[in-house]
Amino acid sequence: MADNRAFVMGHPIAHSRSPMLHGYWLKQLGIEGSYEKLDIAPEAIAAFFADFHAQGWIGGNVTVPHKTAVIPYLDRIDADAAAMGAVNTLYWDEGALVGGNTDSLGFLGNLDELIPDWQNGAKRAVVIGAGGAARAAVYGLLQRGLEVAICNRTAAKAAALAQHFDAKPKAYGLEAMGDLLENCDLLVNATSLGMVNQPPMDFDLTRLKPSAIVYDVIYVPLETALLQAAKAKGHRTVDGLGMLLHQGTVGFAHWFKQRPEVSAPLRALLVEDIRAKTPGA
Ligand code: ATR
Predict the structure, then answer these.
(1) What is the reported pLDDT for 2?
(2) What's the whole-model pTM score?
(3) Fewer Cβ within 10 Å of end Cβ, the chain: N or C?
């Protein structure tokens, strides 16, 4: 059996782009290793972890629907996973199997790469949504010292997310959006609106502060209706593909002991795959 085997486990898993990403880096860096797609049904999780050591896994990614279900099988979770309440990356640390979460680092890494000066004068962020993606965005932005407003269709979920972060963010329903936009330096869509096969995000951006950056965590399609509208108004925009790429660098470094780069050819490879599989993307 080959050494240096990592994986992504989920159910279903066929559409995961992580193998393309990690396969690219393994080849580029000349590392002997593999990154395999594992379709693990919920009822098969216990058996998977019972065999984990014997299989020689060096770690892997965890995706839907297992991001919380794996936690009882781990020795511990790290601070990022605890803050996010979910695990997306498994790695070994001095013999302990640890669950981490790289989504907030991915969220920030993408923004830092595409708009390096984004923090110049950026004080207030508005995050739309209250699911897992919103949690990663809120956590990352609080770490960078921004004031964060969470705006969600179901206001109670926004309030619960704010509470999770010790009420540092403020919580609102969508009716507050118009007012919030006027003082917003960074607007983040962390809902599923605008994703392929979902309705578009059609908020009126008229009142958005002219200098605001607009970040959509969605990457299929690459340019959502929200980003198109923001660009048309002259805002700087960030798409979600880099979030996937940057979060991957953290797991790769844990497993293969080298920090890979997010490069233009890697981005182009993923863009080509998205376009090939998504008409109109
Ligand atoms: P993820 O974990 O990927 O972020 P999720 O937990 O399913 O996904 O969260 C989806 C987010 O999109 C939620 O904030 C959801 O709002 P609700 O909490 O009110 O469900 C938001 N969302 C989905 N469809 C929406 C719609 N048609 N209008 C507004 N918000 C929507």
Answers:
(1) 60
(2) 0.96
(3) N
124-128 sheet: strands from edge to edge: 170-173, 147-152, 124-128, 186-189, 213-216, 236-238
From the CA of 135, give the closest atom in ligand 1.
Answer: 4
What stretches in the chain show pLDDT beneath 50?
none
Q: Note if the bond before 200 is cis, omega within 30 degrees.
A: no
Please measure the distance between the N-terminal and C-terminal CA atoms of the chain and give it in whole angstroms: 39
CA of 210 to the centre of ligand 1 (A): 26
Predicted local confidence at residue 3, as pLDDT: 82
Which atom of ligand 1 lies closest to the CA of 191? 12
Which tens digits make up the pLDDT trace of 86-96? 999 999 999 99
- At 218, which helix (H) or strand (E)? none
What's the angle, vertex CA 98, arms to CA 87 and CA 192, rounded to 5?
Answer: 10
